[in-house]
Structure formats: C-alpha cells, structure tokens
Amino acid sequence: MCSLRRAVTEEEMILNSLSLCYHNKLILAPMVRVGTLPMRLLALDYGADIVYCEELIDLKMIQCKRVVNEVLSTVDFVAPDDRVVFRTCEREQNRVVFQMGTSDAERALAVARLVENDVAGIDVNMGCPKEYSTKGGMGAALLSDPDKIEKILSTLVKGIRRPVTCKIRILPSLEDTLSLVKRIERTGIAAIAVHGRKREERPQHPVSCEVIKAIADTLSIPVIANGGSHDHIQRYSDIEDFRQATAASSVMVARAAMWNPSIFLKEGLRPLEEVMQKYIRYAVQYDNHYTNTKYCLCQMLREQLESPQGRLLHAAQSSREICEAFGLGAFYEETTQELDAQRAKLSARTSEETGEPAEDTSGVIKMAVKFDRRAYPAQITPKMCLLEWCRREKLAQPVYETVQRPLDRLFSSIVTVAEQKYQSTLWDKSKKLAEQAAAIVCLRSQGLPEGRLGEESPSLHKRKREAPDQDPGGPRAQELAQPGELCKKPFVALGSGEESPLEGW
Q1: Which one of 61, 203, 449, 488 is most buried, by most CB atoms within 10 A?
Q2: pLDDT digits (tens, 9 = 90+) for 156-181
Q3: Which residues form a coiled coil (predicted)?
C-alpha cells in the first residue's frame, strides 16, 4: 500500500484504504471509444492490475448526475440529455482510474469530487495530440503551459482523497522534459505516465525508451511507461522487457490490449474468437450500445474484417445481430429477458412505493409485438400502411401518444384510430420503434396488411422512408422489453415533434 500524502481524518482513512499503488503494475491505457466498461472488465479478467477509462471531458462530466442503476448493478453518470457518459461497477471500483480532459483547475476539481467515491484514482490527460482534445487547451496542449499544469494538479491533490496522476508526452528536448516532470512531481501526484513520443509523433515513429528511462531515473514517484505496442509489445513477456528497457515502475498498454486484451495473461494470448465472445457477453450484460461494441470488435478483428464473420459484424445493426454473428443469439435472448424481468420488478416496486394507481387502460387493444426493420421492404413501414389505410377510409390520421419510463428509458406508444386505442405491451428502445409497434397492433387487429416482406399490400404513395431509430449513444436498448402498464407520474411524456434522447457510451 502506498503511503498517504497528507494527514487525513478517520473517515478519509477508510476511503484512502482503497488507494492505488502504482509500483510493478500492468495497466490498461485510456483509449477513446475503447476504454468503456466491457473492455475494462475484460482486461481485469486477463490480468490487468489497473484500468483507465477513456478520456472524458470536464465540461461534459460536470453536467452529469450520479445515478445508481439497480437493473445493471452499476453507477452511471448521466448527462441532461439522458446519455450515460461514464458507467462503472463494484467489480472495478478499487482498480479503475478516471481520466479527464481539462484545462481548468476548478472544473477539474468539481468533476473529480463528483466521481471520486466510485473510482480508485483520478488522472489528467496531458498527452493526447488529437484536435478534439487540444483545441480546448486540453491534452498535449497543456505541455506548453507548465503553470496551468501545476495549478490543475495541485488543486486536485489538495482537494480530493483519491490519488492523482497525469499522463504526458515527451518534449522536444530532454532538458525541457526533465524540467517539466520535476515540476509535476512537486505538485504531490502519486505517479506519472509517460508516452515516449513527442506531440507530433505517431505510432509509426519509434518510442523513446531512453527518455522514459531518464525520467524514471530522475523522479522518486512511480513512472508508468507507455507507447510500446508498435515496436515492443506483442506478447506478455514483452511487457516486462519494455519495463526494463525504460526502467519504469509499471507499464501501460494501449493498442496491443485493444487488439487482444489477453495480452495481460501470463499464460499467453487466448484465441481471438474466445476473447471477442467474452467481450460481447460483458457488452450485453452491461447494456453497452451496439455501435461501441461493434467498434471495439472491429479493432480486434483488424485484418480479418473481410472474413465471413467480419462481414457479418460489419452488417450488424443491433446488439442482437452482433450476438448472432458470433453464435451468441441464445445468450442475448436469455440475458435481455433477465434484464427485462429485473426492470419490471423494480418498476412494480416503484409504483407500490409511490402509491400511484396505474392509468386505466381498459378499452385499449394490446398485443405483444415489436417492429423488426429486417422484416419490411426498405421503403415501407407499418405507420405508412396505417396512415394510407386511414386516408382511403376517410378517417382522421392516426394519433400517437408516447411515454418513456425513467427507470430504464424505454418507450411505449398508444395509437388512436377511429376513437379506438392500440398498444404493444413490449417496451422499446426509441420513440420511433414504439410507434411502429403500436401501428402493427392496430393493423393486425383489423386484419390489414402491414407491409411485411412477401405480404400482399395495397400500393402506397411514395414518400420519404421512415428509418428505424439508430441511436449512436448508450445504454442502450433492449431488443426485448417487459410488458408494462402506463402510469401517470413515473413517465416522461414526449410530444409528437420531440426526438428520443440520445444515449451515449
């Protein structure tokens, strides 16, 4: 256990008992779009000692609210638009480091205080050379402003109970680099991660092991070596070779871990198919948005993207389709049904606790149906069929009333046609999909064509295709949802012109 940096109260001592020690550790590096919860848990399974989340920007995090997700047994930090910006769980609490992008000491402190009780450490990104980070004075842009670096780190060290670290790149000259790291050390941080390349250099440039070694020889705090994936790290034993070449205390692995997280396994790399299936299981269990899951799997497949399985992955447009591509269709169905049952249980408990009576839905015709885009031609949807039928019958156009459950952010819609209401008992991941399901109930109850492939249906006026919702964010959608009743207060009603909230990973 590393020594504490300052005198603390008894309460702080309890919290600090979870403090990280950065000596002789294998560490998953922070990687944008990769370092979400499924990848972090997988890295821990394979032997990583510490895992970093992807860089999260202070301006985004400072708007978030901490929410305990009882369905997933996670802690979520949720933005005002309902996107989950950061998700963590008890399994990683003592080993996950929250990395932020910041250029302001007070904002950094506010974010650190927001998350510190749910993470093991706080890290400031001072090495990312990409424009999205540097344009706001964050990332590698901080390297040219030592005063700001000192203020941010000093403020964090004095203001929170968790160990504070930073990740930098080397400067053009060794003298300037050593001068900077000495100044950083004086702020009281617990460790420093060094990517052994300059700001303008990329992975194809050789990593400067000798500069990292000079830093390690100069400082008394642990130095974490980073940047060895391209030239040095292809297997587990290479990690120790890289550590010795840099004289670092620990090694942080990025792309080699992204390609195969079992790089941390002492017994050697596991077959990629096995690793990907394990990753997918975590992604489904923790409701990871399919676009993020798909991205990470593509990074693992690399040159195999043109294989039959790679093509199936490329074509997948949902978590279910990803699971089917990897032979995990049954696992997906079983897991989502379990999650839906848990949601229903919690929803019922919430209704009992609030004492709110369920809305009277007598007279509403209900069926357990869902809209599956694959079952319909590209230009046809059930809503279009229903609208066309109403026009031919000289009826008022259908009216959709859609609600969202705050508990899981799933949607249900009721459509009214000729004063009769129709509703699917299955909840959906978006407003659009819920409305399509309600239209299907109406059409089927009337014995009308709904436009499915191979179904004889009347001609439709040509109009713009209604695309199924393809939310880019997370968490994310359950393809199967539990039947539920419409309640008055536990829902957020959406007007007909509102878009469904984006949910982010």
Answers
A1: 61
A2: 999 999 999 999 999 999 999 999 99
A3: none
